[in-house]
């Protein structure tokens, strides 16, 4: 019986196999893989991360093997495991492809079923240089027979062979259905291989340093970092510390030679984690190590010691080293500088990564490997003294131990572990490609790079996205999960300790909660726990939303200068807005609002009451189409709104109350934007001045309107308010009073005496209404710069002012008029007053020598008498060396001298006058720059003092938490208040040299 021919499957074309090279079809014919019998090989090849690279490598292998190619070809057809390992390896790593081609016979090692254990690895690398045990040297000390230059090549070859076997088994699941090698197993095997490499390097070092005599030193080699934790990468520095007895020349030479051999043959060895870093001795005795850590070590050094592990050399000495230092590690959290050191370390790590690389950086970016490792290590340090179960070295093992102890939630630990292992998988694949140390993802527009990484990382299309799309989604998802869980890791257990959120969660003990809050920067952790209990104890939906929000809010608060005050302020704001249903919803839905609110509350004592009384400001923390709403408001429009709103009221008290309310909102807006770094100094000062001007205008109008209604006739005089000092210069700070002059002009037909009496009554009522006690920042109107000071009439007529200034004006009064500017009341009268005083304040021919001497005398008297007792002249922002008074008096003296010649000096603003001085070349541009910088620096520091303390202040504090808080609010880039203070004193000292030369003559 004749059977019909069996249908034979078609051989897939090169394109269907993912082969893009034009010569791919020729290469398949050269391998004799263009037939039906080769279909299993072809489909396996198509699953290789880079099928073209794999095919090219196979062609190169065939050429190198010659007649021996048939053995490999037959094995690949018969052995699925070998096929998966080889194709995955040469399609993932160009470095290992080249390694195989250089020694094709090594393909046989890929048939091995199991990975070698640590002992076998050590034996294999020692055998490469013919090493034998060193008599009396312990199990890890050997002497190499081959120790010349050729030893490096022998060790490198043997190390790469072992590394290749691991990589092939690790990658095999990408091609065939081989088991996925667990992350922990990969890290441990790499660490065991590193131990074996270091042992072989030490054997060569022994032969080189002691060629004809026994070793007399005991040298312990301590692995640190990832190697110490047995979670090493494929390509990584290996951090080592050396301990020796005695720490003599021989021990030092052995350590140095070990580093040299290992660096040339295997991987770079870094000993910078030793005491004193690279400046310290390479080798120390155990006693010397202990002495250093007791006296000089920093917090980060104890954090590094968490992962220490004896790797090779004298293991007994290594264990003694570990036993001596571990107790100090677990006491590190009790150090006074622990919190500040930890916060500084975290910021330093974040600052290492350029902003445009943070989304591609697996190790140091936001939501990266370092975030996980840092958080886990911090929790270990905080709780390790009380719980020995946390005395583990690996990140994954530590997460499991923290979850078992209730220090982190079980689900959070499991999710964080999964994300950590995913990110480490990507890191490993990137490093295998060329055996280069890297942690950077391909650029978003590098389609080929992303495609290769997706296939190497076992990504498969999911029906909606191709493999690259799946990879990108996974990267984004895991980075976001790390970011989210980073906050929950610290704070979710704290909330569990005060409110049962999950019936199955293990509850953190009150003592552990206090320890954790203290380590996160809370000075009064017991009080902080009380606030958390109150916030989460709210009934119903609000309590649930608070529990959802608080982990993230607390993380943001923990990064502020005063988290204790910030948490209390948040509780007060929450309770104050209890009836506002939008508040918690806004924080939940707008992360920018929530984060900015926490920064503000944890930085400023000035703002909480304002925000409670002007809660609508919180909504302005959001971003609008043109940027943050806090900065898109125009100050001039705010003033118009205040005046318009007040105009609706006939009762002056109600009118001023309305003006206060609107002022409160504007102060909250400006101060919030200032704390958040959204406004510069001139913008802050101008905004504060304009709102003061608007309130004055509103108050004057309201009082005049009420007076006219009461009398039933128009006012007998026009009244103008002239701003003086910082108000006149539109350079007010948060703690500034409003210096003013009141000037009136009787209307035609009015009796002057009655008119002046009426104006005095209006001015007095304006002062009293604005200065009435209030929970808001004060509104003090000071008319002390009027003629004859506080002994003179509160209000004078324009003619009386003119007569006084022409006949009696003192030099200091003339100087004060330099900052006079119309701010409220009758605009025409104010302008006439300014024109009248122009002849006084801008004298023809300049100021007289006698007046200059008098101004200098008064300044010297101010310096000696008005500086508060005990104040430090170097750091008093107003009256100190190179402070505001120094700069302003210098500018005003130049105005008195040259304003008649330089019309641009007819200006009440210090900064604008400095610009005019520079343009007119009255001072060198460098000198003007020093004066301008000092004025801006002192003003910023003075404003920051008020924002931080919540009340007016001029004296910068000494080093400590308060100074650090002032530095942060003043825009200093880190928490080092001492650096900020040094900068302030340097800037003002340089300005003082200009002041002494220009003002002092």
For this entry, give a set of tags.
single chain; 1001 residues; mainly alpha; Four Helix Bundle (Hemerythrin (Met), subunit A); Beta Polymerase, domain 2; 5-stranded mixed beta sheet; 14 strands; disordered N terminus
Radius of gyration: 38 Å
CATH superfamily of the domain at 337-521, called what? Nucleotidyltransferases  domain 2
Major β-sheet, in short? 5 strands, mixed
Sheet/helix structural class:
mainly alpha
Helical segment count: 43
Give the low-pLDDT segments: 1-8
Number of DSSP E strands: 14
The 3D shape can be described as: elongated
CATH A-level architecture of the domain at 337-521? Up-down Bundle
CATH names the topology of the domain at 337-521 as Four Helix Bundle (Hemerythrin (Met), subunit A)
Distance between the termini: 126 Å
The portion of residues assigned to helices is: 55-70%
Query: For the residues shown, what is the average pLDDT?
Result: 91
CATH class of the domain at 337-521: Mainly Alpha
Estimate what percentage of residues fall within beta strands: 5-15%
